[in-house]
Write a structure and sequence with these properties.
Cyclophilin, Cyclophilin-like_dom_sf, Cyclophilin_TM1367, Cyclophilin TM1367-like domain-containing protein, globular
Length: about 120
């Protein structure tokens, strides 16, 4: 079941919540809709978002399609492939992030060039 609609530029994606970070998920869910101008870092986009939560089950290595919150930098991040910090091809953040959701299909992002406007809303 799709929980979130994620728009990246002109691409429409679907995402589902994960169960690993209930406090962060609740804060993000209460803040929806959210969005911003995404900055590109390898196969990651991130934008400013201030949530009042500490790191929760945070990790630098994340699955492809991860939607994660970086509490130290107040950023929401989307990962779909390698970043400059990656080792052996895994998606890797520059610092530990809290994964709150996962994109169901990242194939639409593989051809993305540069940054893009990102928006997350509840799925209807």
């Amino acid at each position: 079941m799709t929980d979130l609609r994620v728009t990246v530029g002109d691409r429409e994606l679907a995402a589902t919540w994960t169960d690993d970070a209930p406090e962060t998920r609740a804060e993000l869910e209460a803040a929806l809709p959210v969005g911003g101008d995404g900055t590109r870092w390898g196969d990651e986009l991130y934008f400013d978002l201030a949530l009042d939560v500490p790191a929760e089950n945070a990790s630098e290595v994340v699955p492809a399609g991860a939607i994660a919150y970086w509490p130290d930098g107040n950023k929401l991040c989307l990962f779909w492939g390698e970043t400059p910090a990656s080792v052996d091809g895994e998606p890797r953040a520059a610092a530990p992030v809290t994964v709150v959701a996962r994109l169901e299909d990242v194939s639409a992002l593989t051809a993305l060039e540069g940054g893009a406007r990102v928006r997350l809303v509840r799925a209807e």
